């Protein structure tokens, strides 16, 4: 296990073959491959935290829980609400700040705040030759050439091994509430979520559970902020959405937090038999995705991001992409009982070529998580 950026660079430079980059070990997503393990959890610790500047700098192996605790002590948080994959994937370990960035992990609040990459200010990483590179800093700014900060988010360690990240953080909300619409079909639910997201009431979450928590479909709209403002906006949303069906308000803090944590971590599929796919489409196509998957594979589905993120549980070995022909978007296997299909499918000739050229530029020997992303 490396414990410094210098050791990390030396380990990569001296590698004689493929390397499997391991942070907390909580997200075993992607195509399987053989390679020497390179654990980086020893690169741990917050190196700078300035609450007044809303800035945090941490080594890549720093446990996410440690960062959350530190931020909470100052009434702040990571605005993009990163998912905890352990329950869904049946993994152990501790999620790390570097793994979160490498996978661009973003939760329900993405519809309002943006994704992980949108809060990434700077990165330090080791490329496939062992060189230490850095890009960005501690403030948002325009760039020329490669925007390595954005490029590293979602690269899953195939372009470089993160050693340090800088992030913008935001204040924690005083309170939150959910406006719940009961009994909607998927198409009506997406229309309701679109109406809420298009309203002036600053919605921070919009999800739909066709099976709900008691067998009844429930559509969920989240509001956050100061107590009086949340109560006012919730009442206004009830009026806006009343034409869709029965609407109620849930404002008990523990219940609201648990409901959205369950949405974020896809707890409905924890421990369930079958493969789990993560499908990203334009929100208006979400219900069509659900309808096709139910018809073709008897799938279970749930919707986040106003319908733009569809999680589905299907029979082992099912390739959902065949049922989604003609729809734009992206489908990735998040959990598979058997490795029958590539987790990261082709993105088309042009994008595949661009990806290959980037990997060749930053990892000319092809040793960093080779084959993980196809």
Structural description of this entry:
The structure is a single chain. The protein has three domains: 5-171, Uridine Diphospho-n-acetylenolpyruvylglucosamine Reductase, domain 3, CATH 3.30.465; 175-265, Alpha-Beta Plaits (2-Layer Sandwich), CATH 3.30.70; 268-366, 2-Layer Sandwich (Alpha-Beta Plaits), CATH 3.30.70. The chain contains eleven helices and 17 strands. The protein has a five-stranded antiparallel sheet. A four-stranded antiparallel sheet has the order 11-12-10-13, sandwiched between helices. Residues 140-145 have low confidence and may be disordered. The chain starts with a helix and ends in a 12-residue tail after the last helix. It has 374 residues and is of the alpha+beta class. A hairpin with a 4-residue loop joins strand 15 and strand 16.
């Amino acid at each position: 296990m490396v414990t410094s950026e210098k050791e990390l660079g030396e380990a990569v430079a001296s590698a004689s073959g493929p390397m499997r980059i391991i942070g907390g070990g909580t997200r075993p997503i992607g195509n399987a491959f053989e390679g020497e393990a390179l654990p980086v959890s020893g690169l741990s610790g917050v190196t700078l935290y300035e609450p007044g500047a809303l800035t945090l700098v941490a080594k890549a192996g720093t446990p996410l829980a440690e960062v959350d605790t530190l931020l909470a002590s100052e009434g702040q948080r990571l605005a993009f609400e990163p998912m905890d994959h352990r329950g869904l994937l049946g993994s152990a370990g501790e999620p790390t700040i570097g793994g979160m960035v490498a996978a661009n992990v973003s939760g329900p609040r993405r519809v309002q705040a943006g994704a992980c990459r949108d809060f990434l200010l700077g990165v330090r990483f080791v490329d496939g030759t062992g060189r230490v590179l850095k890009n960005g800093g501690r403030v948002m700014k325009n760039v020329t050439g490669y925007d390595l900060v954005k490029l590293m988010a979602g690269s899953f360690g195939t372009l470089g091994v993160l050693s340090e990240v800088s992030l913008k953080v935001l204040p924690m909300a005083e309170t939150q509430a959910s406006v719940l619409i009961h009994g909607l079909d998927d198409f009506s639910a997406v229309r309701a979520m679109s109406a809420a997201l298009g309203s002036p009431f600053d919605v921070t979450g919009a999800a739909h559970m066709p099976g709900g928590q008691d067998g009844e479909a429930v559509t969920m709209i989240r509001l956050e902020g100061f107590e009086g403002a949340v109560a006012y906006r919730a009442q206004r949303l009830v009026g806006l959405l009343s034409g869709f069906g029965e609407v109620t308000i849930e404002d008990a803090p523990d219940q609201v937090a648990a409901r959205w944590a369950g949405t974020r971590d896809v707890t409905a599929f924890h421990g369930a038999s079958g493969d789990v796919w993560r499908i990203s489409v334009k929100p208006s196509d979400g219900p069509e995705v659900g309808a096709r998957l139910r018809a073709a594979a008897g799938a279970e589905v749930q919707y986040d991001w106003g319908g733009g993120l569809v999680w589905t549980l299907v029979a082992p070995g099912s390739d959902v992409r065949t049922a989604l022909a003609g729809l734009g978007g992206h489908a990735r296997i998040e959990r598979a009982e058997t490795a029958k299909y590539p987790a990261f499918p082709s993105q088309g000739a042009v994008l595949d070529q661009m990806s290959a050229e980037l990997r060749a530029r930053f990892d000319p020997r092809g040793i960093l998580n080779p084959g993980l992303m196809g």
